[in-house]
């Protein structure tokens, strides 16, 4: 199964992608995580992406399409994937369909995580992430340790108030139309109420895909 997770910044895509990946036995593919790792390693891709990410703007489509090709064709993703924040523009949606078609696959479901803006701002303002495995946390101070890998928790630069505001604007302009595109291109789109406990949201997502 290849499942696309869509939703605004802070909707819980990363949190739920990890849970769905564990439950379904297929990998999470997160372009944000791939790009942050590239920034940390100082690769040419990371150097190109950094300024866009710090401002909360989208990284150019060709960079994302290259990541899609590499990750979806990898051995680990042969049985499918949970695509977390991978599709944010119409060219990316079309590109994903092409890449999957070449692999004899298709988008099996699109899950849209629905959360009000006021809640998103609250979540992002209180988030820390593990600098090693990128697991997000709420209510943990920077410098605390990750439960999963023992890495150090940090605040993301794009979780500063100005970058959050820009990310929400960018989402409305460039990513929200992707949802409509999927609806009119025959994909199974399911809206998930993403407010509630993490367990409740996971249960809703699994039910939406018949699991
Ligand atoms: P990315 O890392 O993907 O950021 P994002 O889409 O803005 O999403 P977030 O990671 O901020 O939020 P999330 O929905 O995953 O929520 P989370 O689970 O962390 O991308 C970063 C940047 O990379 C982009 O701005 C762009 O520059 C670039 N980029 C990446 N992909 C790209 C692409 N395809 N095209 C172009 N550019 C791209 O949860 C948020 C917080 O809420 C956490 O603290 C969490 O603990 C908490 N939380 C989770 N669930 C709940 C709940 N049910 N109730 C209360 N709190 C909750």
- Provide the CATH top-level class: Alpha Beta
* Helix-residue proportion: 40-55%
Computed CA radius of gyration, to the nearest angstrom: 16 Å
Outline, from the CA principal axes? globular
Biggest sheet, spatial arrangement of strands? 2-3-1-4-8
Question: Which range does the strand content fall in?
Answer: 15-25%
Indicate the structural class. Answer: alpha/beta
- Can you count the beta strands? 8
From the structure provided, what is the oligomeric state, counting identical versus distinct chains? single chain
**Helix count from the secondary structure assignment:** 8
Q: What pattern of helices and strands is seen along the backbone?
A: EHEHHHEHEHEEEHEH
Q: Which CATH-level-2 architecture?
A: 3-Layer(aba) Sandwich
Instruction: Write down the domain tally.
Output: 1
Concise structural overview:
This protein has 8 helices and 8 strands; from the N terminus they run E-H-E-H-H-H-E-H-E-H-E-E-E-H-E-H.
Overall description:
With 211 residues, this protein is α/β, with parallel strands linked by helices. The chain has a single domain (2-204), classed as Rossmann fold, CATH 3.40.50.300. Helices cover 49% and strands 15% of the residues. It has 8 helices and 8 strands; from the N terminus they run E-H-E-H-H-H-E-H-E-H-E-E-E-H-E-H. It has helices spanning 13-24, 31-41, 44-55, 61-72, 90-102, 117-125, 161-184, 198-208; strands at 2-6, 28-30, 81-84, 109-114, 127-130, 136-138, 153-154, 189-193. A 5-stranded parallel sheet has the order 2-3-1-4-8, sandwiched between helices. A 3-stranded antiparallel sheet has the order 6-5-7. Helix 1 (13-24) crosses helix 8, helix 2 (31-41) crosses helix 3 and helix 6 packs across helix 7 (161-184). It is globular. Residues 7, 9-15, 31-32, 35, 52-53, 56-59, 64, 85-86, 88, 92, 123-124, 127, 136-138, 158, 167, 196, 198, 201 line the site of BIS(adenosine)-5'-pentaphosphate (AP5). BIS(adenosine)-5'-pentaphosphate binds at residues 7, 9-15, 31-32, 35, 52-53, 56-59, 64, 85-86, 88, 92, 123-124, 127, 136-138, 158, 167, 196, 198, 201.
């Amino acid at each position: 199964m290849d499942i696309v997770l869509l939703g605004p910044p802070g909707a819980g895509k990363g949190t739920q992608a990890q849970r769905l990946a564990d439950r379904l036995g297929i990998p999470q593919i997160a372009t944000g995580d791939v790009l942050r790792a590239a920034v940390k390693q100082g690769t040419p891709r990371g150097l190109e992406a950094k300024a866009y990410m710090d401002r909360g703007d989208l990284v150019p489509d060709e960079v994302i399409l290259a990541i899609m090709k590499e990750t979806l064709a990898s051995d680990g993703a042969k049985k499918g994937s949970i695509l977390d924040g991978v599709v944010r523009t119409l060219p990316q949606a079309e590109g994903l369909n092409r890449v999957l078609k070449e692999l004899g696959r298709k988008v099996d479901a699109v899950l849209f995580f629905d959360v009000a803006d006021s809640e998103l701002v609250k979540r992002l303002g209180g988030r820390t992430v593990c600098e090693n495995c990128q697991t997000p946390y709420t209510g943990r101070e920077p410098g605390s340790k990750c439960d999963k890998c023992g890495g150090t928790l940090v605040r993301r630069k794009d979780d500063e108030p100005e970058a959050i505001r820009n990310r929400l604007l960018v989402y409305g302009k460039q990513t929200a139309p992707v949802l409509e595109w999927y609806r009119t291109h025959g994909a199974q789109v399911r809206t998930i109420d993403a407010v509630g406990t993490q367990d409740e949201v996971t249960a809703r997502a699994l039910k939406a895909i018949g699991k």
